[in-house]
Structures are given as structure tokens and as C-alpha cells.
Amino acid sequence: MQSGKIKHYSSDKGYGFIDVDEQNEEVFFHVSNVRLSQPITVGQRVYFNSERNHKDQLRATEVTDASLSIEESSAKVNHASIRSN
């Protein structure tokens, strides 16, 4: 997952942009792809997966915060351990 901070968010329109850490590119996100433990705020640190659309623009496919990112990662590891036994 990549990391960054919320640069802009329009609650009325349900979308915003993430300022990606150590990159000069923004990532578009829609509220339907956001799973956060608290409301979306400008400056909030987030973790995300992204892909390029047909116009070569980065779009977030999943946006989460540190606590959910860590929980999900450990759940995947635990699930993988159970399957291999």
C-alpha cells in the first residue's frame, strides 16, 4: 500500500484527492472506496491502493487508515497461516 495525506475532500460531491508521500502526483478517491475509523479530514494520513484509468490518471481503489491497514494485514497473515496448516 502507498501512503499520503488527504489534500482536498468535498463531502457534498463525495470525492477528494490524496497527496502521495514522496511523489509529485495526486490520487483521486471516491468515498465509496474509503474505509476509515474516523471521518475524512484534510491533512489526515491514509494508506491506499491505486490504479491508472483509461486517461492515465491515478485513482484510489481502496483508502484506509493505519489502524485498519494493520488489522487487515495481520488478518491476511493469520488466515494464510491457517490455510497452510
UniProtKB/TrEMBL annotation:
Highest taxon in the source lineage: Bacteria
Q: Which residues form the CSD domain?
A: 1-65
Q: Which InterPro entries match?
A: Ca-reg_mRNA-binding_domain (IPR052069), Cold_shock_CspA (IPR012156), CSD (IPR011129), CSD_CS (IPR019844), CSP_DNA-bd (IPR002059), NA-bd_OB-fold (IPR012340)
Q: Which Gene3D superfamilies match?
A: Nucleic acid-binding proteins (2.40.50.140)
Q: What's one Pfam family here?
A: CSD
Keywords assigned by UniProt, alphabetized: Cytoplasm, Phosphoprotein
Q: Where in the cell is it found?
A: Cytoplasm
| Record protein name field | Cold shock domain-containing protein
Organism of origin: Psychrobacter saeujeotis
Q: What is the lineage of its organism?
A: Bacteria, Pseudomonadati, Pseudomonadota, Gammaproteobacteria, Moraxellales
